[in-house]
Amino acid sequence: MKRHSVFLSFSFVALFAASIGALLPDHALAQTTAAKPVQLDRIVLVVNEEAITRHDINAQKNTILKRMQAANVTPPPDSEIEHQIIERLITEKALMQFARETGIRTDDTMIDRAIARVAQENNLTLEELRAALLQENIPFPMYREELRKQITLQRLREREVDRDIVVTDAEVNAYLKLVNAQVGGETEYLISHILVVIPDQATPDLINERQARAEDILKRLRDGADFAQTAVAMSDASDALTGGALDWRTQARLPTLFAEAVHTMKNDQVSDVLRSPAGFHILKRHDSRSRNEPKVVEQTHARHILVRISETASEEDAKQKIERAAQRLEAGESFETIARLMSEDASSSRGGDLGWINPGDTVPDFARAMDALQPGKISEPIRTPFGWHLIEVLERRQQDVTEEYQHEQARQALRQRKSDDAFEDFLRQTRDRAYIEYKTGER
Q1: Angle between helices 126-135 and 140-160 (to 10 degrees)
Q2: What is the pLDDT of residue 383?
Q3: Is 435 exposed, middle or buried (0-12, 13-18, 19+ CB in 10 A)?
Q4: DSSP 3-state assignment of 34?
Q5: Strand bridging mode 245-250 / 187-197
Q6: Is 16 exposed, middle or buried (0-12, 13-18, 19+ CB in 10 A)?
Q7: 410-437 pLDDT, tens digit each
Q8: Which of 243, 259, 263, 423 is 20 to 30 A from 285 via CA?
Q9: How far apart are CA 304 and CA 326, in angstroms?
Q10: Coil, strand, or helix at residue 322?
């Protein structure tokens, strides 16, 4: 069964397992799989008066070591793994504290809706989802709270970073012009990276020291050291615990410094040390693939009647109104006329006409109902987050949308790159503002 997750994969959260366990972030899974009677727990450090305990660290370490073992990666010394875990826990706690202090609240209703989406995307009922979690030894209350945390962090990122990201038409056109000028067109790269960070206001001596560290890491890699293991042990990046993996990315998704480097590298090659304002980077290009196949999709020309649910129109009122519209259609009145009279959508002035719709343009409930209709047929009343609909499919066609698709993909990739860069800065600033107190003998 294909599994999905509503969690956003923040750069400081490791990749989720390909099972129902993927519905939990790393540390929740760690707390579950490592749940044992604890004879003695002690505070290792305090982040703005909130404790991180020895049990917190050991639980995460247990999960990480199991994943390294499954991936045949030799783990670095415990002290190096613990350093990365502590940094991740500090950042997470600082972010959650900032979210609470600035008014972000994730209530139970939002959690219930998210859980319902997880169940639906996995083709499970809520009872079956509970049973699947139980089979994985994941307590449902813990699952709810970890989901609450991930939604809170997603909302924090949207508010503090994503809402300010702008990609202009000029940027999209410039990127596509660059891609079209390249032999072979647009390419995706599978890469990993290691970062040796330069702190703000670093002295020249400290910069030289960090550069020497990066050069030493590069020498180890070229002498045969495993890249993923070295990243876990020595990278300062927030994704160090995943071996520095960045997954598949087009050049638009990469910082310009990275994009220029990987374009000239070969697969399995390690870059020279690269310098950016954040620090010194080392990249490894694992693989590449073309993204230049023509994009042909089936488009649907449809129209609809929408009755919204609001403070003045209850669920039952809206359903009764859409049923009256269905009855009038069955009695022979034209769809266009009923849409103009009764639809509460901007398309009502066009008789409900939505034009040609590409796959993915509509919400899933609407798409499923529309896709099940033959041309000329009208659906039963359909409920979506927008309200109640009647849908009529007018016609379908196969359409080459390669140019449109390339523009949209470029825009999304450029936006994601800007978001990733801005979010990394936000993580670093939030971490740097946190007051960290290590307990005696624990640092």
Answers
A1: 110
A2: 92
A3: exposed
A4: coil
A5: antiparallel
A6: middle
A7: 898 899 889 988 998 899 899 989 999 9
A8: 423
A9: 11
A10: helix
CA distances from 344 to 301, 304, 323, 355 (A): 20, 10, 15, 17
| Element (DSSP H or E) covering residue 410 | helix 402-433
Tokens 């960290």 belong to 436
Of 238, 275, 291, 232, nearest in space to 413 by CA: 291
Both tokens of 273, joined, read: 């040390």
pLDDT of 379 strictly over 90: yes
Average pLDDT over residues 323-352: 96
Q: What is the pLDDT of residues 178-201, one digit of tens each?
A: 877 765 567 889 999 999 988 878
| Coil, helix or strand at residue 400 | strand
Tell which residue, 152, 241, 121, 147, has the closest CA to residue 192.
241
Rounded distance between C-alpha atoms, residue 185 and residue 36, angstroms:
54
pTM of the model: 0.61
Over the stretch 2-47, which tens digit does the pLDDT of each residue have? 333 333 333 333 322 223 333 334 444 444 444 445 446 789 999 9
Q: What is the pLDDT of residue 35?
A: 47
**pLDDT surpasses 90 at 120:** no
Cβ neighbour number for residue 382 with a 10 Å cutoff: 18
CA 337 centroid distance within chain: 43
- For the four alpha carbons of 252, 254, 258 and 263, in that order, the dihedral sign comes to negative
Q: Give the pair of three-digit tokens for residue 11.
A: 């750069």
What is the number of helices (H) and of strands (E) in the chain? 14, 12
Q: 244 in the Ramachandran plot: left (φ > 0), alpha (ψ -120 to 50) or beta?
A: left
Residue 18 CA from chain centroid, whole number? 15
Neighbour count for residue 123 (Cβ, 10 Å):
10
